[in-house]
Amino acid sequence: MLQKIHKLYCSYEKEEQWLNEMAAKGMMLKNYTFGTYYFEKDIPGKYIYRIELLENAPNHTESRVYIEFMEDTGVEYISSYMNWVYFRKKSDEGEFDLYSDLDSKIKHYNRILQLTSIIFYVNLIAMFVNLYIGLVAMINNNIYSNLVFASISLIVSLIIGRVRFSYKKKVKKLKKEKQLVE
């Protein structure tokens, strides 16, 4: 029987950590849709989970080739949401890392940074538009709904901005580390 858990994450690393903690308790991810995880009981610690943001949608030819390559190496494709994919591998088969070198880590973080930048700027624009419309409506008709939407967009922008900043720091740190290695 599947157990459903609703949860949202702004950090794929924290989400990945939580999935692995759930796996350690015997709850194995079977599917994911926005904010909803479906788990099935199994042997505790049986799998290690990893999450990746692909460049293209999972049904894109390049992504399909990559997913098939992963499956050929013993990795199981579990689910996807937009360009995010969820993989798992049996823990008794050893370590499971998706990024074997600094370049692949930097590339992945840059994809996340690009996605969060788009979300950040769209919300920022929405905030200013709603703020303008809200101020005009408030002055003319005492209508405050757009000011509420502007506030929501501001809050989302602040959250996403914080996430963007953390990934920018990670990319900068990895690039520094790469320079030291070279």
UniProtKB/TrEMBL annotation:
<dbReference type="Pfam" id="PF11193">
    <property type="entry name" value="DUF2812"/>
</dbReference>
<feature type="transmembrane region" description="Helical">
    <location>
        <begin position="112"/>
        <end position="137"/>
    </location>
</feature>
<keyword id="KW-0812">Transmembrane</keyword>
<keyword id="KW-0472">Membrane</keyword>
<protein>
    <submittedName>
        <fullName>DUF2812 domain-containing protein</fullName>
    </submittedName>
</protein>
<feature type="transmembrane region" description="Helical">
    <location>
        <begin position="143"/>
        <end position="165"/>
    </location>
</feature>
<keyword id="KW-1133">Transmembrane helix</keyword>
<dbReference type="InterPro" id="IPR021359">
    <property type="entry name" value="DUF2812"/>
</dbReference>
